[in-house]
Every structure is written in C-alpha cells, then in structure tokens.
Amino acid sequence: MAAAAGSHSVSALLSRSVFLLDISNNDMYVFAAAELLTQNRSAADQRRDAAELYANLISNYSATVTELYSMGARNLAIVNVWLVGCVPTDTLNQLATGFDDALRSLLAGLAPRLPGLVYSLGDAFVFTRDAVADPRTLGYTDVAGACCGSGLAPCLPNSTLCADRDHHVFWDRAHPSQWTAFLTAQAFYDGPAKYTTPINFMQLAQSN
C-alpha cells in the first residue's frame, strides 16, 4: 500500500479505519477439550490451568493490539467471547466470563498508554445470553439445537438442515446463525448501552 500510494496517505487511511477483532472463542473449546481428557485433576489444578490460559491469551492480545497500534491502527472494534457452545455448559461459560473480564481490564489499561487509541468492546456474551433467555422477542424458536447438524454432530455437506435458519440462535454447534450475526451487529453498532463499552461501534466509526 505504501509503495502504491505513499506512506503518508497510508498512515492517514489506517488512522481513520476501524479494525475488527473477534478472537479467542476457539481457545475456550480447545482448552475445555483438553480438560475433559484430565478429569481426575483437582479443582485447584483446574483453576490454575484456567489462570494460565487467561494469562497466555491476554499477553497475546496485548501484543496484538500494541502491534496494530504501531502499524497505525487507532480505532478498534473488539468482540469478546460469546456464550460458548450450542448447548451452553457451565464450565465453558465460566471460562468465557473469566476471559471476558480479563479482556475488559486489559483494554481499559492499554488505552491510556497508547495515545489516540479508541476502542469499543462488544459484549457478545451478554447479547447471546439475553437472546437465549428471551428468544421470542428476537424471533427465535430454538435456542439449544443448531440449524445444521442439530448441534450434536458437526455441520457437514450431508447434514440435516432446519427449515428456517432465522429461527435458530446457532447455525452449528460453534457458530451463530446469520440472523444472530445480524442482530449482534445491530446491537453493537447503536443498540442498548449494555452491549458495548465505553462507546458503541457507531461512535467509534465517527470518532475520527
């Protein structure tokens, strides 16, 4: 880009752009799968493992944000870990909330140290929790089973599909349906304040 348009033009473009980060969901799945193989571990060991996971992820997250900043990124739209799994389990969602708390603290601490950095943190966990708690308000009829594969089996080319995917929160056992993605985008852009902090995505886009 710099070779084609010049470094000054590229720097100006990057400083006005919004960068979307939506990562760490898969880390929860992989960690939980590994823990299932060692179910005889004590509760203290499991808590220590979770703390090490958070420390590793937050360290990588901090390095990633800092590197993006050094390359000229100034406006970050960040999505936390959502309600994990097609049929949410206590263990996975405890992991998710622990990481989300750590991510919130990281961003609040990073922003003052990186002059000009503006961010919006979208709370996918709270949004999907609300959708599951009151599905009919958003047009859902199924909050547990997935549209593809019913949530118990992987979504494959020969999998059975639901009749109306817009009535399902989940597309498969790990991903939201298109309707859920649309509603989430609306909520983060200019929806209720509880879904974004410290500003929403619209305010982020207008911040420059």
Automatic annotation (TrEMBL):
Q: Which Pfam families match?
A: Lipase_GDSL
Instruction: Give the top-rank taxon of the lineage listed in the UniProt record for this protein.
Output: Eukaryota
| A GO term for molecular function | hydrolase activity, acting on ester bonds
Could you mention a single GO BP entry for this protein? lipid catabolic process
- Keyword set for this entry? Hydrolase, Lipid degradation, Lipid metabolism
Q: Which family does it belong to?
A: Belongs to the 'GDSL' lipolytic enzyme family.
* Protein's recorded name: GDSL esterase/lipase
What species is this protein from?
Miscanthus lutarioriparius
